[in-house]
Write a structure and sequence with these properties.
This protein has 118 residues and is mainly beta. 0% of the residues lie in helices and 55% in strands.
């Protein structure tokens, strides 16, 4: 089992910045890929960014150049630095981790709200 706990969400004005954190605990040795998803009201959950244990990253087009994903494997912590925030970035942001070494389960955090005012 892996537990994920997000922090760092909040209210920010357009153009501002936030940094989200996700602390993983439990069977963290099982994790390979970690990432951030988001879900806006009335919309489906979408991928924001992912990062592998080796540091390979991928971003959805709408956040490229503005968001940066990173992870500290020693601290079992995932980060998302969000710059130049836009109102359309408003959503609940969820931390994600897979576990290909331990049955392939997907794990999710409880979510943290990010609200960007215009």
């Amino acid at each position: 089992q892996v537990q994920l706990v997000e922090s760092g969400g909040g209210l920010v004005r357009a153009g501002g910045s936030l940094r989200l954190s996700c602390a993983a605990s439990g069977d963290t040795f099982c994790i390979f890929t970690m990432g951030w998803f988001r879900q806006a009201p009335g919309k489906e959950r979408e991928l924001v960014a992912i990062i592998t244990t080796g540091g390979s990253t991928n971003y959805t087009d709408s956040v490229k150049g503005r968001f940066s994903i990173s992870r500290d494997n020693a601290k079992n912590t995932l980060y998302l630095r969000m710059n130049s925030l836009k109102p359309e970035d408003t959503a609940v942001y969820y931390c994600y981790a897979d576990s290909p070494l331990c049955g392939g389960y997907d794990y999710w955090g409880q979510g943290t709200q990010v609200t960007v005012s215009s």
